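Troubleshooting log. The previous structure file for this entry was overwritten by mistake, so regenerating from the original sequence record. Sequence copied from the archived sheet and checked twice against the printout by T.R.
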Amino acid sequence: MHTNSLTIPSFLPASGRWSRAEPRRWRDVLEDLGFLAGLKAKRVAGDSAADQAEKQVCKSARRGQHIVLGTAEIPYEPLVLNSAPLTALKQFSDLEIVITTRSAEILEDLELLVELDRKHAVTVDMLIAIDDSSSMDLRERLEAVAVLASEGITTRLITTDLPAASDDIRPHQTESTVRDLFEAARDCQAFDVATTNPALGGGRLVQRLRLEYGFPRLLPGRG
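Regenerated output below.
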């Protein structure tokens, strides 16, 4: 019998709420730990990919189209694109920008995202694999969600591997696993929780828990 549970990051305040002063403090902590410095060191020479992404978003922006960076199948990789498509959007205004990623490295673009959210409507979808519930990578992603949300950026948790009830995972165990995800989302002040497979049986569970936990939350203010 296999069960999963999400581990809530220990850095979250007891109240489960963040103030607007928190991101700067936590950014300083991450700098001290060498986290952000390590991200900068990991940037690769991806000029061709970055240039291509920049041209594509500019083309869509000129047409007034929604800007979609990343999907559940091919998530946005901040370090590969070197912030190029986001920087290019600074010259435009009043666009809807949706970024789908599974990387805490999105914090590397925090200040740029906050700046863009003043001119556009920015949403960050953070992909969460429940099977990774005990990994440090998940803790970092939940941290990124908390920091983004505290800056007023609409941030959603998207589960990519919602378990279905089976002989090995009974319905009450499935609900317990998904409930842990919702509690993490609430503590991180995420705007909403969704699944990439709403047609599955677990999709109905997600909808029920969204109502129970009060999702979607009231829209956050602009950063």
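Residues 1-24 have pLDDT under 50 and may be disordered. Archived copy saved in two places this time.
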